Amino acid sequence: MKKIISLITSVFLLMLFTNTVFSAGDEENLSLLGSFKRTDAAMGESIPQDTKFAENVRKNILPNIKMPAGFKIELFAVAPDARHMAVSRNKGAVWIGTRKDKVWQATDRDMDNVADTVESYSAALKFDIPNGVCYSDDGHLYVVERNRVLWFPAAEFFMEGADGPVFALIAQGELIPPEEESYNHTARVCVIGPDDKLYISMGQPFNVPPEDKYPMYDEVGIGGIIKINRFPGELGREVVGIGIRNSVGHAFHPDNGDLWFTDNQVDGMGEETPPGELNKACGLGPDIWYGFPYYGGGNVRTGEYKDKQIPGKYSGKYCKPQIETIAHAADLGMMFYTGNMFPAKYKNAIFSAQHGSWNAVKARGARVMVTYLDEKGNATKMEPFAEGWLTELGTYLGRPVDVQQYVDGSILVSDDKAGVIYRISYSGV
């Protein structure tokens, strides 16, 4: 028994030492890159594009996708575990986050609307769930991990090789308290707001959290949205919304600047309840409350809180969703369409991805939705735009995660099941 205990202790110490060395190495490389110095790190992984796998995606998935007349879907890139995307403005580069340890860079080098290369971005760094990627009009890339926020200035200019300047806007362990780090609801997203701030969504780690968590959660912005300054110096961290279970998609209206976001609601309450949500912000501030955990989605109260009185700080402040979506469809990434390729009715409409359920008996989701707004900026209806990733047998051919506009006015759709990026274009009827 002593030998077994000794062996277990040795293995634990080895794991601890290994993690410590790895973490130190990552911080050292971050410091070197922030000083514009070489790391001599290897180039990283390159994903082949012209393969039997790509051929099979074109043959077995694309013909199943149904869209309105005049639209066409094609394979843009093979990118394993593809999640949220950020699109450059000039060189046809697309940065792709994952829920693992890589950020991919897909580059359309000959500008034929198909990625020629997909490579590890900033391979000198060890990422930790770098799901959230966003790109500014002035050429800066931001990556939001489980518990860190990174800034890559001049991302297009330094997009080749393992090295390039990078700085921690929020250092490791300072986005949320380290003791709140979780494997659940860690897929952060980010967007640049009209005030030139960086907005970050932070899901809370529970299905339904205990009451004693909420004073700290509301203060930090867990289960909410925060904003920070997007350059080093004074962080200016502010909470701009609370009472959000797990938002994995948000965007600002291009004309009026309203913040919109999706929210994934409570599991275990029933096959068809509670609904998912598409929300429009009722303002920006630490007292703007979106219902959770007292409401599990829409007007449905959570089982854990249904008999509890809503605290005074929340009372009368419930900002209800604009659209209630089908339960457990997992509404994730979203964008406003501002391009000129699609018909006029899609101008400033919201395109969003439904990832599909992990636990519903009857499979649902796995499609791209479109939501139309009226002249006052309120949602009028949501309807399917592209669907067919869910077969009649109830199996998933793919699971859309994010929707982003490409440089030519088409849209890109990521799929983390198939591990690809699709491009949807319009050429007329």
Defining traits:
four-stranded antiparallel beta sheet, 429 residues, 29% strand, 11% helix, Neuraminidase, globular
Describe it for me?
The chain is mainly beta and 429 residues long. It has one domain (38-426): 6 Propeller (Neuraminidase). The protein is built from 3 helices and 26 strands. The strands form 7 sheets. The chain has a 4-stranded antiparallel sheet with strand order 1-26-25-24. A 4-stranded antiparallel sheet has the order 2-3-4-5, with no helix packed on it. A 4-stranded antiparallel sheet has the order 6-7-8-9.
CATH top level is: Mainly Beta
Rg value: 22 Å
Hey, roughly how much beta strand do the residues contain?
A: 25-35%
* End-to-end separation: 75 Å
CATH superfamily: TolB, C-terminal domain
Can you give the mean pLDDT?
92
CATH topology: Neuraminidase
The outline comes out as globular
Number of domains: 1
Give the tally of β-strands. Answer: 26
Blueprint of the fold:
Blueprint: H1 2-34, H2 52-60, E1 71-78, E2 85-87, E3 93-96, E4 104-107, E5 117-120, E6 132-135, E7 141-144, E8 149-152, E9 167-170, E10 189-192, E11 198-202, H3 214-220, E12 224-228, E13 238-242, E14 250-252, E15 259-263, E16 276-280, E17 295-297, E18 300-301, E19 323-325, E20 331-336, E21 350-354, E22 367-373, E23 379-387, E24 400-405, E25 411-415, E26 420-426
Antiparallel strand pairs: 1-26, 2-3, 3-4, 4-5, 6-7, 7-8, 8-9, 10-11, 11-12, 12-13, 14-15, 15-16, 16-19, 17-18, 20-21, 21-22, 22-23, 24-25, 25-26
